[in-house]
Each structure stands twice: as structure tokens, then as C-alpha cells.
Amino acid sequence: MKSFASDNYSGVHPEIIDALRAANEGHAGSYGADSYTAGATKKFKTLFGDDAEVFFVYNGTGANVLGLTALTNSYNSIICAEGAHINVDESTAPEKFLGCKLLTIATADGKITAEQVRNRIQRIGDQHHPQARVVAISQASEYGTVYTRDEIVAISKVARANNLALHMDGSRIANAAVTLGTDFRAFTRDAGVDVLSFGGTKNGLMFGEAVIIFNSALASDMMYVRKQGMQLHSKMRFISAQFEALLSNDLWKRNASHTNGMAKVLGESLRSIPGITITQKIDANGVFAIFPRHIIEPLQKEYPFYVWNENLNEVRLMCSWDSTEDEVRAFVARVRALVGTRQ
Predict the structure, then answer these.
(1) Domain count across the chain
(2) Which residue, of 194, 224, 246, is where some domain finishes?
(3) Torsion angle, CA of 21/252/12/285, rounded to 10 degrees?
(4) Where does the pLDDT of residue 342 fall: very low under 50, low under 70, confident under 90, or very high at 90 and above?
(5) Are 195 and 173 a contacting pair, CB within 8 Å?
(6) What does the alpha-carbon distance between residue 304 and residue 288 come to, in Å, rounded to a whole number?
(7) What digits encode the pLDDT tens for the residues 5-52?
(8) At 47, phi and psi to the nearest 5?
(9) Are residues 199 and 263 in the same domain?
């Protein structure tokens, strides 16, 4: 059964499997003292600068929490979109491990604006109020929309003017880079991002993410924080080898270009069906649509997917690196058939 529920449902890309097999030969140093970690770190430094600090971790929640740890104290607050992953889909991990308050902003498309951030910064210096310290954005957003470089720069300027840092959750950063048609650095470090969670799992890896810190002063204690946060992998070569492969031969770009393309085919095909409304711009690999209520349950029995907003019957459909056009067309045909049963 093929799924449109999540790009986490897909398997591991064959080139990543090959990298894991190669890393599995013989012995190697533990906890990052191996040639694979050195190689992957070098590739990240090529992308982001020689002074970028790279920390490999198991998963996205760990990457976000550890990255935010580098920027906050427990009396701080973090400004983010209401639907941000750190607010909606990471349980209470941010609050438990950071001790910070999340200050959310309602958005129609998953993206927050510089003006909204400016209005959310309040009561600085008031000991009775959590002190805003970080603006956190997701690229791509949880609604599949992508921030332009100018939008990120504008948010960064507001943050800087108020002594705040900027964190980016880049679980789907490869998809965003393909949409923007630029290199990673242009819309991260060079746009004012201080700490980046660089995603791998949703782009073909078996497991593994990376925390990239662009200010070395913020990274001074990260090795201890990673250990305390239970994100230090003893056999780290199996994370690093995957990233080394992902960042070689444009594998990241090939995967993301394909998933973005499949989402566009899916969205445009669904748009032609009476009774279906596409609710968001299709920037990355997600399609958000309002379906007639009567088709959702029978369709989910054949193709797993999530209902994003139950009140609106809005669903989320995610394409993966291994999604095919035939699978997309078959899904659309089934939607069309189910819609037709009530017409």
C-alpha cells in the first residue's frame, strides 16, 4: 500500500543503503571519531562556511530542541507559528527540556511575518514576563509553503533589532532549496539564521538530522548538551555516512526535485475535480486540500493520509522521494470516482 500520509512513511533511498553498507565494513571510531563523520562535516562546511559547527543527532525533535538549547535560558520565550512543529507535533519536548514558553502566532499559510514578530515582542525587561529570545521558523512550513530569502531577512532584522536569535527548522530544507532555486547558505546563514536543524530523514535517509550553528560562541557547550539530551550516537558513522551520500552527486536535490514535482502533479490534478479545493500554495512536497467529507474515510482505507483540519475537512497529502506519477494518477482517479458517487 502506497501512502500520502507522510514523507516519513517512505523507505530508504538505494544510494543511502549503499552508503550504510559501506560504513558497515570493519571497525571505526565511536562517537564521531571516524572518517565518515569527518567527511560529512567537511561537506556541511563547504555548504555553510568553515566556521560552521556541525552536530549529528538521531531525529528532528532532538535537532530542534538541542538547537534551541544553544539559544535560550529557561526563563526565555520562543516566538513561532501556531502550527509550528515545535508547538504542535513534538508533544511537550521543547517545554520539558528547554523550560521555555512558546509564544505562537496565528497564520493562514504556516508562515509568520516580520511585522507579526515585531508585535509579539512585548514586556522586555519585565521580570514578571517570559523574555523573548528566539524566533523559530520552519522551512518549508508545516503548510508546505516556503519562505523567500527576503522574508527571512526581514524577520532576522526584527529579531536582531530586539536582541533575538533566529532558528530554522529545516526538516524539509532540501525541498525549500529546490523551490527557491538557490544554495542553502543564501536563505539560511546569509539571511540571518543563527541555528539550523538540517533534515535528512524526510529526504531519503534511514535516520539522522544535523544541527548547524553559525556562531561558534553558541556551540561551546553543545557537545555536552547533545550527550545530556540523549542524542549522541555511539556508532555515529551510520548517521554521517548517510549525510555524506545525501550531499554527494546532488542526491538531496534529485530527491527533493522529484518530490516537489510529484506534489505539483497531484495538486493540479486534484484541482480539476469538482468539489475539491486546494487551500495552500504548493511550494514543496505537500498538498493541502478540502475534500468532501463522504470520501475521506473510504479513501483512507486504500491510501493513508492525515486530516489536517477536521472542521474544514482539510487533508494533507505528502509526496516522497519514491512517489511515482502512476501512483499519483491512480490516487487522483480514485478520488474522482469517490466524488462521483454523490453527484
Answers:
(1) 2
(2) 246
(3) 180
(4) low
(5) no
(6) 14
(7) 999 999 999 999 999 999 999 999 999 999 999 999 999 999 999 999
(8) -75, -40
(9) no
Mean of all residue pLDDT scores within the chain: 96
Contacts of 139 (CB under 8 A, 6+ apart): 146, 147, 152, 168, 169, 170, 172, 173, 176, 187
As a whole number of angstroms, the distance between CA 197 and CA 174 comes to: 12
> Does residue 343 surpass a pLDDT of 60?
no
Asked whether the beta carbons of 94 and 65 are under 8 A apart, the reply is yes
DSSP secondary structure letters along 19-50: HHHHHTSS---STT-SHHHHHHHHHHHHHH-T
- Residue 23: give the domain boundaries: 14-246
Q: Looking at residues 228-232, what average pLDDT do you find?
A: 95
The domain boundary, picked from 181, 214, 246, lies at: 246
> Do 124 and 131 contact (CB within 8 A), yes or no?
yes
Cell of residue 240, nine digits:
554521517
* Contact (Cβ atoms closer than 8 angstroms) between residue 242 and residue 205: yes
Q: What is the pLDDT of residues 77-87, one digit of tens each?
A: 999 999 999 99
Looking at the fold, whether 310 and 191 belong to one and the same domain comes out as: no
CATH number of the CATH domain containing 145: 3.40.640.10
Task: Identify whether 5 is part of a domain.
Answer: no
- Tell me: do 144 and 278 sit in the same domain: no
